[in-house]
Design a protein that fits this description.
Helix content: 25-40%
Number of strands: 10
Keywords: Hydrolase
Largest sheet: 8 strands, mixed
Distance between the termini: 23 Å
GO molecular function, one term: hydrolase activity
Protein name: NUDIX hydrolase
CATH topology: Nucleoside Triphosphate Pyrophosphohydrolase
Number of helices: 4
Organism: Yinghuangia aomiensis
InterPro entries: NUDIX_hydrolase-like_dom_sf, NUDIX_hydrolase_dom
Length: about 210
């Protein structure tokens, strides 16, 4: 999820799985390769997002384990705006550590088949909604500094943001990773959110039609 500046990281219970190592040097794995493939082929919506994509790719080129939270310099995360286009609304989660309404999301895990699968897994886990439909391509990128791995441990989240479509009759269930879940109209997002979420919802809503 989007957690800029002094905010804490995504839920601490996420897996710390990482690629296999040989002589102490991490090796790229399938999830790393998929993330590079997705970002390399992504049609960025503007020049700022294109530059950010290039920064993500540079990070992944420098760190074969840059998709996992074990990389202290920074790591990729996956998040998703859960959209109900029929009702014109988005489901946001009230983050327990930062007290803001954000999209669902979290760290990648070694068992994730792909970057998109990680985004869908996080959305399903945090919303409790079955039958979510992931739009295939990322919507936006959002890079931010976070406290991740401890109260004084700073890192960078290279968040890849997707959109998922919820069934029109979906009823969310609050998980342990959230204080609350609530639907908000596209044009009436809560004050206690941030501009990154607003941009994501605007673009996700447009893509959802």
């Amino acid at each position: 999820m989007s957690l800029p500046d002094s905010r804490t990281g995504v839920p601490d219970g996420a897996s710390t799985g990482a690629p296999a190592t040989r002589l102490g040097a991490p090796l790229p794995d399938a999830l790393h390769g998929d993330t590079v493939r997705v970002l390399s082929g992504w049609d960025a919506p503007d020049d700022d997002q294109a530059r950010l994509r290039d920064a993500y790719l540079a990070h992944l080129a420098a760190y074969p384990d840059g998709t996992y939270r074990v990389r202290p310099e920074g790591h990729v995360t996956a998040s998703a705006a859960i959209i109900d286009p029929t009702a014109g609304r988005v489901l946001l989660t009230l983050h327990p550590k930062v007290g803001l309404w954000l999209q669902t999301g979290g760290h990648l895990e070694a068992g994730d088949a792909s970057l998109a699968a990680a985004a869908l897994r996080e959305a399903t886990e945090e919303s409790g909604i079955a039958g979510l439909e992931l739009l295939p391509d990322p919507v936006r990128l959002d890079r931010h500094d976070v406290r991740c791995g401890g109260p004084n441990a700073w890192s960078v989240h290279y968040d890849v943001q997707y959109a998922v479509i919820a069934p029109s009759d979906a009823v969310p269930e609050i998980s342990a990773e959230s204080l609350d879940l609530r639907w908000f109209a596209f044009g009436a997002l809560p004050e206690r959110t941030d501009d990154a979420v607003r941009r994501l919802v605007t673009q996700a809503a447009a893509l959802a039609g």
